[in-house]
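Q: I'm a student working through a structural biology exercise. My instructor gave each of us a protein and asked us to get a predicted structure, then write a short paragraph describing it. Mine is DUF416 family protein. I'm not confident about reading structure output yet, so if you can add a plain explanation after the tokens, that would really help. Here is the sequence I was given:
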Amino acid sequence: MTDRLPVESQLRSLDHKKLAAYCAALTERQFPNFALFSKLVEFGDFKQLETILDGVWQSLIPGGAQMNFEVQLDKVEANMPDLDTFEMYGASPALDAVVSLYSTLVCILEADVDEAVAVGNVSRECVAMFIEVSEGDDQMSDEEIIRFITNHELMLQEDEFQEEVVERLTQVKQMDKAFIQNLRVLARNEGVSNIGISDDA
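A: Happy to help. First, here is the predicted structure for DUF416 family protein. I'll explain a few features afterward.
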């Protein structure tokens, strides 16, 4: 699943504030993956990351509180699970969520569209890997696996979600508090992540 991010061309037309909103939305949707992993294996500081992500959303609201994101980078990095230490599958989507948060902060600090593209790709790769691990068949050829993943309901939902976020960002002239709040509600997806996980478990 290394094909080009479907929404990449639209992302390259957005200003840096909207890119940050795109990153925040995708990170929010992945966040239950880290929350559940953190809870199950007692790893990391979920509340700390939740506060940082909340700070990202607040910074997008005109006149909202501004957090020093440069200071937060080390805190986010400290919450990245080491896949060599945690051999269970859940560590991978948890890491993807934290990597996405890290890239979101870099996107805000450097106004770098490539960081936004990276967040989009990380989220899609997370879904692709989940589908392959949970439903993949060793007898499938590479082409069959790619076709299976591409047409899987979870991947279709992922692409629809990203397209919805980009469409909202493209159409809005000025992001206000109501817009940001509605975008966050969409991203929260009633607590269900991009791979169908809820940390309420």
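A: Here are two points you could use in your paragraph. The CA atoms of residues 35 and 199 lie 6 Å apart. DSSP finds nine helices and no strands in the chain. It's a good idea to check both against the output above yourself.
Q: Great, thank you!
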